[in-house]
Design a protein that fits this description.
Layout: H1 2-17, E1 24-25, E2 39-43, E3 53-57, H2 68-80, E4 84-89, H3 95-100, H4 113-127, H5 129-132, E5 139-144, H6 146-156, E6 168-171, H7 184-191, H8 199-204, E7 218-223, H9 232-243, E8 248-253, H10 274-284
Parallel strand pairs: 3-4, 3-5, 5-6, 6-7, 7-8
Antiparallel strand pairs: 1-2, 2-4
């Protein structure tokens, strides 16, 4: 009996270890500055009968990426629910830019690098939809914290159908670049030291100001007790979506804080309900 249990455990580990396919070097062969950093890791759901897929953008204040808790773990949770996922490791400013402020002299990685990565990821997955056995018209994007800002930017600044997602799920997102609710670390990382005080640039990337009339459906979640990104960021976005009559669901939890991803233990029992809410929402979405 013990031997059988050990064999079953080993099989489970082996199956789990091959969930993710080899990461794709998204900009390979193209002359893109710092493009070698950018990868897209497919997590293919074997039971994806609806063809739904999600590109996952981890958070990390645009300086770094929480690519396990808000990346790979989220993708595996989506797989468990029959949804194929792709974890995007986009260009982030990096620890060097955070600690040494070297972008006062050198540009480093900053906007629009991250946006180009997300737009091209959408275009790439749509182009390879047959290979991944998904419906290109059911490809959405989900992002956490700064990754939520990035996900939302793909709707606000879409320049063609090929890089426009079918739906967006910003989870406890950064939204505004203006006081009093701005997440200052994300603003510095996104704009760089040379532009962070430029009010035109701040306005241009405050997404509550740029919701398009043809915005895809939005699933928005955050918590009032978020001590990292002020919860009013999501309130601003919700108000903008209402004003533009965008099909969306905004769920505001009282507790849960920030950074819980799709974890079974982080956040609170209340905030962890977002996972079931999202699955119900996506199953009922008319796309």
């Amino acid at each position: 009996m013990l031997k059988k249990a050990l064999i079953l455990s080993l099989l489970f580990i082996l199956v789990g270890s091959v969930t993710a396919q080899e990461a794709v070097a998204l900009w390979q062969g193209q002359n893109v500055r710092h493009g070698a950093q950018v990868t897209l890791t497919p997590f293919i759901a074997e039971n994806n009968t609806d063809g739904i897929a999600v590109i996952v953008c981890p958070g990390g204040s645009y300086f770094w990426l929480d690519d396990k808790n808000e990346g790979d773990d989220v993708a595996r949770w989506l797989n468990e629910n029959g949804i194929t996922a792709f974890v995007l490791r986009y260009r982030a400013a990096g620890f060097g830019a955070y600690f040494w402020h070297y972008r006062k002299v050198f540009n480093g990685k900053q906007h629009p690098d991250m946006l180009f990565d997300a737009q091209y990821a959408i275009e790439y997955v749509k182009t390879h939809s047959e290979e991944y056995k998904i419906d290109p018209n059911k490809l959405g994007i989900m992002g956490f914290s700064a990754g939520g800002h990035l996900a939302m930017m793909t709707a606000c600044f879409a320049d063609k159908e090929e890089n426009t997602p079918a739906f967006i799920a910003p989870i406890y997102p950064v939204v505004t670049m203006n006081e009093p609710y701005v997440h200052q670390r994300s603003r510095r990382a996104l704009l760089g030291e040379k532009r962070k005080n430029n009010h035109t640039m701040r306005d241009s990337l405050s997404l509550e100001r740029h919701v398009p009339n043809n915005c895809p459906p939005i699933f928005l979640v955050n918590c009032v007790d978020d001590q990292v990104v002020d919860y009013h960021n999501s309130v601003l976005l919700d108000s903008a979506l209402i004003e533009k009559n965008v099909d969306h669901l905004y769920i505001q939890y009282q507790t849960g804080g920030h950074g819980f991803g799709a974890s079974e233990t982080r956040g609170t029992e209340e905030s962890r309900q977002w996972r079931n809410e999202f699955i119900v929402w996506i199953q009922n979405l008319k796309i």
